[in-house]
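Our preliminary data section would be incomplete without showing what the modeling component actually yields. Below, a chain of 222 amino acids is followed by its predicted structure, encoded as tokens that our downstream tools consume directly.
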Amino acid sequence: MNFSIEYIYKHPKSQLKIRFVSDPISLNEALFTAIDLEKTGRISSITFIDSKGVSWSKKELLKLTEVKKEEPQNITIYFDGGFKADRGTSGQGIVIHYSQNGITYRMKKNTSYTNIESNNEAEYAALWIAARELEELGVQYEEVIIMGDSKVVIEQMKGEWPVYESNLQTWADKIEALFKKHQIDPIYTWIPRNENKVADQLVQQALQGKIIKAKKEVIDNF
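Predicted structure:
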């Protein structure tokens, strides 16, 4: 999650006070900059505003920094879903890259949801699984990059395309509510299918009845 710094500059030899607001920057950058500004002795007040418009004090932000040291950060999700109409089966696959306590991990998971009616719904189900995994990992107050090759799901979750099907709207509402609950800021990005191969492979394995959940330490995020 990024923060804007809102501070009041005071002139040392007059009653002049001017309000400034910075561009959004990371948590650590915001604290570093605020401490540096305070050293000038010309700041009468300072507040931090997160991407949801919530105001934080310096004390609250310092406490958040301590809490987040133990939580997952630098999170990127790949998701995919597939539906076989002739068999009435679906498959969902997700890959989550994140760092925690200085170590980078990759988590892979798939499943096969029943009562799915279309490929688009299978994609939404995959995104829901990813959202639930973030909750289990304890992710909160984080910006999360979410990548998928479903133009429909990505554009609808970004709010660029309308959602006409009631079942898809139900999935979208559930996902958004979960992200809001944990103050997760999703950054949705469409990618071509050839850049989503791992998640797609997990889908195919799920459709074949091979269910996987694995996590391993990796050298980088790919």
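The CA atoms of residues 5 and 33 lie 9 Å apart. The helical segments are 27-38, 58-68, 119-137, 151-158, 166-181, 197-207. Preliminary results of this kind motivate Aim 1 of the renewal.
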